[in-house]
Design brief:
The protein has 612 residues and is of the alpha+beta class. It is 37% helix and 22% strand. It binds ligand BES and zinc ion (ZN). The site of ligand BES has 15 residues, from strand 16 and helix 4. Pfam families: Leuk-A4-hydro_C, Peptidase_M1, Peptidase_M1_N.
Amino acid sequence: MAPIDPHSYTDSTHPFTTHISLSLYFDFSSSTILSSALLSLSSPHTGPLFLDTRSLSISSVIDPQTRTPIPFSLSSEPDLIKGSLLTLSLSDQSQVLISFTTSPNSSALQWLAPPQTFNKTSPFVYTQCQAIHARSIFPCQDTPAARIKYSARLNIPRPLSAVMSARHVERRMPVAGEAATACDDSMWCAEDRVVEEFVMEQPIPPYLFAFAVGEIGYREVGPRTRVYAESVPSVLDAAAREFAGTEDMIRQGEMLFGPYEWERFDLLVLPPSFPYGGMENPRMVFLTPTVIKGDASGAQVVAHELAHSWTGNLITNKNNEHFWLNEGFTTYAERRIVEVVQGEDRAALNTGIGWRGLNDEMERFKDNMEFTKLKTKQEGVDPDDVYSQVPYEKGFQFLWRIERQIGRPAFDEFLKKYIATFKFQSIDTETFLDFLKANVPGIEKEIDLELWAEGTGIPPDALEPVSNIYTKIVSLAQEFKNGRMPTEDEVADWGGQEWELYLENLPKSVEASQILALDARYHLAESKDYEVKVAFLQLAISAKCRDYYGEVERTLKGVGRMKYLRPLYTYLVQGNSKEEEKVLAKRVFAEAKECYHPIAQGVVEAILSKHV
Ligand code: BES
Ligand code: ZN
């Protein structure tokens, strides 16, 4: 037994799956998918083959050539983090056909009833597979060390349509026989059903598998970009306006990092319960609707997810212990794109917000310094529980430090070569460091690479950004302590990010009266910009300013993005004399839980159980 990933049962002595062919019958009435998966291995195999699953019921495994059964066993007690080990006993087979059903509480899937959607008339279902949830949709070697190509036939009710982060082949009538063993032909070919067929011809890590099914429409926004969303004209129009500049960003990305390898770059705006700001699913990025603010600031999230097309999707971390290779590089690449399309000041503001975030994480992990490292040990650790800004912002700082050392032109060359060398591979921190040392001779004498990669905390040669606007806002925030509020003139040209930076830099110990005065003047609690609203509400909770608890409750019930749920629930329940707030948190969670994605439910449960 030679595991290669602390979050997967995958064994390095077994062949990898190279292709999966899926037939998926969506049953909205039971929130399940009746499925079959034909797995093709890199070579014929005899003996056990380990696959990851979570809450799947497996009904049969056969050899597709001979149609004979393949013995299998599913571990009886699921591991809380890894799920259930599925062991197949192969005798010289290179393909297996597995029939199975997902569970209504599959951790990757959120099933929305019509009232939970924008248009209120049709159900909706979507995936979120990163970090380790693909296994709750189909059995697989659910490690980013394994790359798979796939094809998929999604059998759905005729009024709905399906999108995937894959190439759409066609929408057509179901054909008898193609369900494989997912369900009977009579169900598959029923009159009210339609099949949407997709192929993914580039090998991807399983966490990038993604689909959504619902009443979905789209608008064209560029030569290789459509924005998809529930087919509500106002939502589609707002999204199309917000993301009009996408093609410009793709071009900048190509100039900086090399050719865009995924052909299309579509965007999908999900319902408000989507647990992330964005998810870099290849060919089709998934986005929270909270990024549509009407001021083109959603472009930053798009820049980030676009940047993953090179760093993350082309070059992938081998496992989650090296997650900074995905997110740190992407944060660096995102800011380079933002710098070109929105200017240096905007990029410096983003870096400054990140710097504040990184410093706050040091406080959060002060009793668990392992997670202030870039390379972390994650045996027995749920990646969703330790998700933080550290891989993003410390990773960004590390790369920025290297850039300062060797100069931008040399660093740009280095980045392009790095991407060209490792594209479509999954690598670890050592591989990156070896490549760095080989291509920048002597770098280890200038920068303490070991301290950056393996040390805790923020290295002394990290840098707080400097720019006029950044420095001005941070000093204004410090003056607030002495009772000085910014004047109307000073904030006249502030957008959401300026306010976010200001609020996040205020001392956490401001008085309730100061909070009320600030809001009376600038109406921050009602901001349409959730970054601003949530930053303000955190201060309000810290100051136990009850006037805002109603707004806190509305926010927690209105969106499921974990970037907002995490701090709001945490601020409500952590610390002493918080009895009233704890009761509020528990009640709101009980009432809102149903509307959260299962991943968000798990994360909030973990916060509450730690403190309540
Ligand atoms: N890949 C992440 C989202 C993610 C990380 C999902 C880990 C599951 C596990 C995505 O690229 C991301 O970083 N999103 C950010 C966007 C922001 C940095 C602009 C988010 O959701 O806030
Ligand atoms: Zn990211």
